Amino acid sequence: MENIIYYLYKKGRGIYxxxxxxxxxxKYKINRSFRFNGEGVQLYGNGAFIAGDSSYIGSFSTVQLAxxxxxxxxxxxxLSHNVRIYTTSIVPDGDWEKExxxxxxxxxxxxxxxxxxxxxxxxxxxxxxxNAIVGANAVVTKDVEKxxxxxxxxxxxxRYKRLNA
Length: 165
Prior knowledge:
Blueprint: H1 2-27, E1 35-37, E2 42-45, E3 48-51, E4 56-58, E5 62-65, E6 70-73, E7 78-79, E8 84-85, E9 88-90, E10 103-105, E11 108-110, E12 115-116, E13 121-122, E14 127-128, E15 133-134, E16 139-140, E17 148-151, E18 156-160
Parallel strand pairs: 1-4, 2-5, 3-6, 4-7, 5-8, 6-11, 7-12, 8-13, 11-14, 12-15, 13-16, 15-17
Antiparallel strand pairs: 9-10, 17-18
């Protein structure tokens, strides 16, 4: 009996995700070669989502799209599971007991052939250069140069790729 219930649950989740992703393709006018790999990917907000050819985003990832801003993902990008990309955040400075929390919004741009590891967090305004790698669990607060490998909290340069090695 438990196997039947589990099967029905999984089947239902698959149908739900398929309908959700279809709605994303329509709402954000996403290129059909962009893939949602797995379940639970969330795109929300009234900003733009620009997806390149042959790129994908993994299970349980979230992309927040502030009105008037965008997230652009280049061609041939691999975004692992549980990646977070935000275009709005709270300004950390200020006395929150005396004043209302202030926020800021900026677009995020990810170049071509980028690999972003599991559980990475990309802050508003970040630009990630072509052929870069963002390590798992990294918190990216600043731009990442082309061919750079970054990791850590906050993300720092580990090294540059050894091309044609």
